[in-house]
Design goal:
By secondary structure, the protein is mainly alpha-helical. The chain has two domains: about 450 residues, Sodium/glucose cotransporter (Up-down Bundle), CATH 1.20.1730; about 80 residues. It has 26 helices and no strands. Helix 3 packs across helix 10, helix 8 packs antiparallel against helix 18 and helix 14 packs parallel to helix 24.
């Protein structure tokens, strides 16, 4: 941990003196740092403990939250990132202020802040503390109570993570994330390998065969109505939840806004999509191994991963594992702090309080706000102590308050020209009230439960809210159409492999679902179904054809479109006419 801190300091020394350096890492992040930071920002103790616990309890259906993120990652890389970088936006609300007005900017900042302060940051810190407490006997080590241990671990994690975010800026976050990401990959590979060897009495292959032929239903990713993630939700609300997270959530997209150029940004985003496909192996298969080793005798499903770690990981690696675990928690926490401070400084303080603030003042204000937010989080987080059961689902239910209206407003803002600001404000207010009523309110107030899965509610509200915005745009359109103004600060030439890699990534998502399905490893009458290889071939053949077409024909057209877009709106229209001809 000390080594990571030292390298992060050396890499960022003298590079946070202006706002671009502090908030966007000097617009100098390369694909590797972006991918590493995105991965560590996304993966935390919440997934290590929660996903393995879900796999131990039921099956692999919860992998949908991770694997299907590839769809959103591709949309971000191919379409939205060129828009963001082309407009040189520092924050998402900044884009919304230019598309709509300052009121919409403030509404979205409030949504982000409430989500970060009340849901995301406390859950990150608490789940990290929970993981440390389950893996290491903190009460016994220090002779303090369990409650005292929770407070101690949360404060230690919070203070160290805050130092990265507050004093180092985005680049320190990205560098430390990437270094910790290497450790996470090592542990991620090591734990299932050692688990298989333990399960197979010293044989890796015997252990792998054991989970394939004994209780193969545990390897099924096709969720039923009884599972927490039914398979159908992948094609409804899951799409929009992932699209919000990967394409409009400030604490995730901020490292892509700091890309050295468009090519490096696209490369980093897409590489992170490939890492997401490894999540079932790193963060769910250990839970299945735990089921085979311990049966259903564990006191809590959340003990599956800690129990496995305790039994299979050599004691001399426990310190390294703790560093990796804390690194994953730091990453999510410091990314949230950095983004919240950025939103406050650039979207509230500068436009509303001090329009003449210079870079030095903005960085100072950002550090003060980040410090205050960190302190508040450290007091709020331990209060989740009595709500640890079901934390995984609870967090996703609460994010529904802000994820759907924001992604609806962003997409309508980009794809239309006449929808006015009032439409976005109406949708935000409508969503918060309606979402509460559908998920909790009718039950609390009238003792009547709405029999619709909350992920399906995501999709229903998305469609309704887009419809509301379009109707308002028809009824009361803007006097002058919105014109996208290109003002790129970096090179806007796309990565030459962005289209073929996107196609390949989509095919791997389909293959992953086939592997973990009743015709794959979850087949009950053998290793895999007779239709397995035929299905794989049916996916790979069109994939090869599409990749060939993208290299031969589509790459040049795509580059031409982006080149015209990065210059001016009329140039885009001329380019479209030329491509049509």
């Amino acid at each position: 941990m000390g080594l990571v801190s030292w390298i992060s300091y050396l890499k960022t020394k003298g590079e946070v003196s202006d706002s671009a350096g502090y908030f966007l890492a000097g617009r100098g992040l390369t694909g590797g740092f972006i991918a590493g930071s995105l991965l560590l920002t996304n993966l935390s103790a919440e997934q290590l403990i929660g996903l393995n616990g879900q796999a131990y309890r039921t099956n692999l259906s919860n992998m949908a939250w991770e694997v299907t993120a590839a769809f959103a990652v591709i949309i971000m890389a191919v379409y939205l990132l060129p828009k963001y970088l082309g407009g040189s936006f520092t924050t998402l609300p900044e884009f919304l202020s230019k598309r709509f007005d300052e009121g919409v900017r403030r509404y979205t900042v409030i949504l982000f802040m409430l989500g970060y302060i009340l849901v995301t940051i406390p859950s990150m810190l608490y789940s990290g503390a929970l993981a440390v407490l389950k893996l290491f006997d903190v009460p016994g080590l220090f002779g303090i109570s369990y409650v005292g241990s929770v407070w101690l671990v949360i404060w230690v994690i919070g203070i160290i993570g805050a130092l990265y975010a507050i004093f180092g800026g985005l680049k320190a976050v990205a560098v430390s994330d990437t270094l910790n990401g290497v450790g996470l990959l090592i542990i991620g590979i090591l734990v299932p390998v050692l688990g298989f060897i333990t399960l197979g009495d010293g044989s890796l292959l015997a252990g792998m065969k054991e989970i394939a032929v004994q209780h193969p239903e545990k390897l099924n990713s096709i969720g039923t109505k009884e599972d927490s993630v039914p398979f159908g939700t992948i094609f409804t609300g899951m799409i929009f939840a992932n699209l919000f997270y990967w394409a409009s959530n400030q604490y995730v997209i901020q490292r892509t806004l700091g890309a050295k150029n468009l090519a490096e940004g696209q490369k980093g985003v897409l590489i992170s999509g490939f890492f997401k496909l490894l999540v079932p192996l790193f963060m769910m298969i250990p839970g299945v191994i735990a089921f085979h080793l311990y049966g259903d005798g564990l006191e809590s499903v959340d003990l599956a991963y800690p129990a496995l770690i305790t039994d299979v990981l050599p004691s001399y690696l426990s310190g390294f594992f703790l560093a990796v675990l804390l690194g994953a928690v730091f990453s999510s926490f410091n990314s949230l702090l950095n983004s919240a401070a950025t939103l406050f400084a650039l979207d509230i303080y500068k436009p509303r309080i001090n329009p003449n603030a210079d870079d030095k003042k903005l960085i100072q204000v950002s550090k003060v706000f980040g410090t205050l937010l960190a302190i508040v989080s450290l007091f709020v987080s331990p209060m989740l102590m009595n709500a640890s059961e079901g934390l995984w689902d609870l967090i996703r239910r609460f994010t529904g308050f802000f994820n759907i209206p924001i992604i609806a407003i962003v997409l309508v803002g980009i794809l239309t020209k006449y929808v006015p600001a009032v439409a976005a404000k109406v949708v935000i207010i409508f969503h918060v009230i309606t979402y509460y009523m559908l998920v909790w309110g009718t039950d609390h107030l009238f003792n009547v439960s709405v029999p619709i899965h909350f992920i399906h509610i995501y999709a229903i509200l998305f469609v309704i809210e887009v419809g509301i915005m379009l109707l308002i745009g028809k009824w009361k359109p803007m006097a002058a159409p919105y014109q996208y103004r290109a003002d790129p600060k970096v090179d806007m030439n796309p990565w030459k492999f962005v289209l073929p890699i996107s196609i390949f990534l989509l095919s791997l998502v389909a293959i992953t679902y086939v592997v973990f399905s009743p015709i794959g490893l979850a087949y009950v009458n053998g290793m895999v179904s007779p239709y397995f290889w035929t299905t794989i071939a049916a996916i790979l053949l069109p994939t090869g054809a599409l990749i060939f077409a993208s290299i031969k024909y589509w790459n040049q057209k795509y580059a031409g479109y982006l080149s015209a877009q990065s210059q001016s709106e009329p140039a885009v229209m001329n380019e479209k006419k030329r491509l049509t001809l």
